[in-house]
Automatic annotation (TrEMBL):
Gene from which the chain derives: DGKA
Organism: Moschus moschiferus
The protein's name in its UniProt record: Diacylglycerol kinase
Function: Diacylglycerol kinase that converts diacylglycerol/DAG into phosphatidic acid/phosphatidate/PA and regulates the respective levels of these two bioactive lipids. Thereby, acts as a central switch between the signaling pathways activated by these second messengers with different cellular targets and opposite effects in numerous biological processes. Also plays an important role in the biosynthesis of complex lipids. Can also phosphorylate 1-alkyl-2-acylglycerol in vitro as efficiently as diacylglycerol provided it contains an arachidonoyl group.
PANTHER family documented for this protein: DIACYLGLYCEROL KINASE (PTHR11255), DIACYLGLYCEROL KINASE ALPHA (PTHR11255:SF38)
One GO MF term: phospholipid binding
The family this protein is said to belong to: Belongs to the eukaryotic diacylglycerol kinase family.
């Protein structure tokens, strides 16, 4: 339902966020252009008119034309009346309000956002905010709260009371020091700034706003929050409070590492009241009456749920429950100084001591996992899969130790790989699309790790071709993560081939697009399917709001495939290139092709098996691949190719010819079994004579005449999910 005038609608807000996701600009960059740059002509005091506002959006969002309805809705949302030379003007908006609002939506460190918002409203630069300036900041926070699904009617008095508490010295104004201090300690302020709180072991909850589908009770005041109402839930311990109770909440009970020698090695239960979602006691198996009051206890590490009266019967030691194989309990992580043998006056190590070491987490903390376990390192791309990535990140923070879960958008994979570097027998779970998986594999390859961990995939992307081949599914849709982790325990390791790509351009006046990758994990292609992917990529870059779901993406892909089938831009491809496999020319003279695909895995474009299914002889496990052995680096005999099974660990590629877009559509819809099998080989070279569309692992580009060499690089251990109950489509993994 659209908001009242003064706030943009949820659909407009979603569109705005999508624009921001693809933009590289910062508010501070745009602000400089208006203050003393080429946009200064639009500035009227500290205000801009509608034309200036449009210029702000155009530069900040990096789009040529922002839809009129979105520009107008945003402009109207900032129209509160502004005085210019003692005259009230309603046809302008305050540039500081606009800048503050967009800065809150940006990613970034809490300290940077807090200081930026302070300086925006400290117009006289005296280092102090008066009550009216603080009120304007509250208004911008209210805008954010609206789209975080906070109950705004209850929020304003909470914020006003919070702002009074920020004035620590009671002077009636807020200094920069007071503002930064408040931002580091005040939970609603951090959430409303749209920030991801820094993980600290100082009793600070990791709050997130949440609407509850069932009645729950506040851990502080013990009154009901109500069905469908909103409160705050801690990601770490599931402590739940009303918005207004957050300031008085008891400290978070979760400690992510051992702070004294006596805590190392043996993990204790950590009980928190409430949070008994199953409604049944794991000790006596009787019901817990969770709908009547705040009752029951749950352990944040083993996730057992018990009656209050059953607590005395529970032992002190916690075994981390059903997910123990994956969890690094706090007793397994401790400050390096405790392992150094240095005598200290006290064995108690404060959080400040660890922070003051001026070391990275990997150097400040040491990991000694429980024996016979396989600790899980989780990488999450929170922007993958709509909001699914963010929700997956929150859930894993509770299911595992939060120090095992890393936000890729924050620092990339390197901190996690450094932290786990010396951990034996650990596994990696990548939560994202094929591009995210490729990024992680590349970082593992460059890290020179003493132990190369096997990698599993939780598919959050659009195509998810690698996840399909490894039996992790075509897309995560909210399934129980605990069950997925249990499946991971029984998974098998397969060593996946990875291939190097060298592009050597010819000397021409034309300019190529940059080559997206130098490594192939999934597939490489030239021609028709790359042309479709390139058109899809260009349109998505230009209109990101039209590509915000898997279904929409597939419909757009179908539209581009249809137009490609009509215009046939890559017709008679064999006249524009030659192919060599292991130094021998591949004869294409009797074929009429519009595309050639080089496959490392038997899935492209979200599930299309271009090589096709192969019926193997009964009882033959590895089929013809094993029989041929390492000597058969090249296979071109059509009869033998009919019996070849794709295998992502045989150090060979499958080469397939494509007759056109219609054929690709027929393969995708299972109306046709496969493309034209051309070869299996361990090395391939292309020589092109004109500019052609190409793609690596779904990332397309236009390439001028060149030579492309594809050679085997290495193998990476990957985890294969358990076999499905029905027969598996990809026989090589059965």
């Amino acid at each position: 339902m659209a908001k009242e005038r003064g706030l943009i609608s949820p659909s407009d807000f979603a569109q705005l966020q999508k624009y921001m996701e693809y933009s590289t600009k910062k508010v501070s960059d745009v602000l400089k252009l208006f203050e003393d740059g080429e946009m200064a002509e639009y500035l009227q005091g500290d205000a801009i008119g509608y034309e200036g506002f449009q210029q702000f959006l155009k530069i900040y969002l990096e789009v040529d034309n922002v839809p009129d309805h979105l520009s107008q809705a945003l402009f109207q949302s900032f129209q509160t009346g502004y005085y210019i030379e003692d005259t009230l003007r309603k046809d302008v908006v305050c540039l500081s309000d606009v800048s503050c609002y967009f800065s809150l939506l940006e990613g970034g460190r809490p300290e940077d956002k807090l200081e930026f918002t302070f300086k925006l409203y400290d117009t006289d630069r005296n280092g102090i905010l008066d009550s009216s300036e603080v009120e304007r900041i509250i208004i911008q926070m209210m805008r954010m709260a609206e789209y975080l699904d906070w109950d705004v009617s209850e929020l304003r008095p909470i914020l006003q009371e919070m702002m009074k508490e920020i004035d620590y010295d009671g002077s009636g104004s807020v200094s920069l020091a007071e503002w930064l201090r408040a931002g580091a300690t005040t939970v609603p302020l951090l959430v409303l700034l749209g920030l991801e709180m820094t993980l600290k072991d100082n009793g600070q909850h990791m709050w997130r706003p949440k609407r509850f589908p069932r009645p729950v009770y506040c851990n502080l005041c013990e009154s009901s929050i109500g069905l469908g109402k909103q409160g705050l839930s801690c990601n770490l311990c599931k402590y739940i409070v009303h918005d207004q109770c957050a300031m008085k909440a008891l400290p978070c009970e979760v400690s992510t590492y051992a702070k004294s020698r006596k805590d190392i090695g043996v993990q204790s239960h950590v009980w928190v009241r409430g949070g008994c979602e199953s409604g049944r006691c794991d000790r006596c198996q009787k019901k817990i009456r969770i709908y009547h009051s705040l009752v029951g206890l749950h352990c944040v590490w083993c996730h057992l749920e018990i009656h209050d009266d059953c607590l005395p019967a529970m032992g002190h030691e916690c075994d981390c429950g059903l997910l123990r194989d994956h969890i690094l309990p706090p007793s397994s992580i401790y400050p390096s100084v405790l392992a150094s043998g240095q005598e200290r006056k006290t064995s108690r190590i404060s959080q400040k001591t660890v922070d003051d070491l001026s070391l990275s987490t990997s150097e400040a903390l040491r990991i000694d996992p429980v024996s016979n376990t396989h600790p899980l390192l989780v990488f999450v791309n929170p922007k993958s899969g709509g909001k699914q990535g963010e929700r997956v990140f929150w859930k894993f923070q509770y299911l595992l130790n939060p120090r095992q879960v890393f936000n890729l958008l924050k620092d990339g994979p390197e901190p996690g790989l450094r932290f786990f570097r010396d951990v034996p027998d650990y596994r990696i779970l990548v939560c994202g699309g094929d591009g995210t998986v490729g990024w992680i594999l590349e970082c593992i390859d460059k890290a020179s790790l003493p132990f190369v961990p096997p990698v599993a995939v939780l598919p959050l992307g659009t195509g998810n071709d690698l996840a399909r081949c490894l039996r992790w599914g075509g897309g995560y849709e909210g399934q129980n993560l605990g069950k997925i982790l249990k499946d991971l325990e029984t998974s098998k390791v397969v060593h996946m081939d990875r291939w190097s790509v060298e592009v050597i351009p010819q000397q021409t006046e034309e300019k190529s697009d940059p080559v997206p990758f130098q490594i192939i994990n999934n597939y490489f292609s030239i021609g028709v399917d790359a042309s479709i992917a390139h058109r899809f990529h260009i349109m998505r870059e230009k209109y990101p709001e039209k590509f915000n779901s898997r279904m929409k993406n597939k419909l757009w892909y179908f539209e581009f495939a249809t137009s490609e089938s009509i215009f046939s831009t890559c017709k008679k491809l064999e006249e524009s290139l030659t192919v060599e496999i292991c130094g021998k020319p591949l004869d294409l003279s009797n074929l009429s092709l519009e595309g050639i695909a080089v496959l490392n895995i038997p899935s492209t474009h979200g599930g299309s098996n271009l090589w096709g299914d192969t019926r193997r002889p009964h009882g033959d496990i590895h089929g013809i691949n094993q029989a041929l052995g390492a000597t058969a680096k090249v296979i071109t005999d059509p009869d033998i190719l009919k019996t070849c099974v794709p295998d992502l660990s045989d150090k060979r590629l499958e080469v397939v010819g494509l007759e056109g877009a219609i054929e690709i559509g027929q393969i995708y819809t299972k109306l046709k079994n496969a493309g034209h099998r051309l070869a299996k080989c361990s090395e391939i070279t292309f020589h092109t004579t004109k500019t052609l569309p190409m793609q690596i692992d779904g990332e397309p580009w236009m390439q001028t005449p060149c030579t492309i060499k594809i050679t085997h690089r290495n193998q990476m251990p990957m985890l294969v999910g358990p076999p499905p109950r029905s027969s598996n489509f990809f026989g090589f993994l059965c």
